[in-house]
Amino acid sequence: MRGIMFGYIRVVDAINHRIGRIAMYGIFILMGILLWSSISKTFFVPSLWTLEMAQFVMVGYYILGGPYSIQLGSNVRMDLLYGEWSTRKKAWFDVFTALLLIFYLCVLLYGAVSSTAYSLGYWGTEPFSFFGGLITGSEEIGRMERASTAWRPYLWPIKAVMVTGLFLMLLQCTSELCKDVLRIKGETI
């Protein structure tokens, strides 16, 4: 079991490290979009796509960088009591909070999958079976959801990014849970 946990931690941390390092450059894409927005509003006809595209890039930057942030331990934590605790007591507390976070992420992931299925034209109540049906060919994509703005982009790409980011966050939280269990057992990570 110990070897499986170490292998899982190594694989998930490597994946989220690479994706997080790539997602970091999303801030430059966001800056470029906002710079173009300012230039086009000042000198040319304002672009319709810049505000929404900036929002989409920010969502991708935030949600794909979240697992990397958890991996680095750079998330916000109250150190009023936590900072003075022993490593073992911190690990016990982190196990409890990781379990709560995993439950919350599972609820969010289900909602994101449902929303993505809806954006692809599915109006039923079983979004996972819809995606399984897309793979097997028994389901078809319906009328796709679009934003109600002048630009009217399709919403499924950003919702797919949200599903991916939440799934990666769930994997990283499970990795952190494994690290805490190993710390409780006295292992060094």
Give an overview in words.
The chain has helices at 2-23, 26-43, 50-72, 79-82, 87-119, 127-136, 156-184. 74% of the residues lie in helices and 0% in strands. The chain is globular, with a radius of gyration of 20 Å. It is built from 7 helices and no strands. The protein is mostly helical and 189 residues long. Helix 1 (2-23) runs antiparallel to helix 3 (50-72), helix 3 (50-72) runs parallel beside helix 7 (156-184) and helix 5 (87-119) packs across helix 6. It has one domain. The longest helix has 33 residues, at 87-119.
Using brief descriptors, characterize the structure shown.
189 residues; mainly alpha; 74% helix; globular; cell membrane; single chain; transport
Enumerate how many helices there are, as a single number.
7
Low-confidence parts: none
Oligomeric state of the chains present here: single chain
Question: How would a crystallographer describe the biggest sheet?
Answer: none
Function: Part of the tripartite ATP-independent periplasmic (TRAP) transport system.
GO molecular function, one term: transmembrane transporter activity
Main location: membrane
Subcellular location: Cell inner membrane
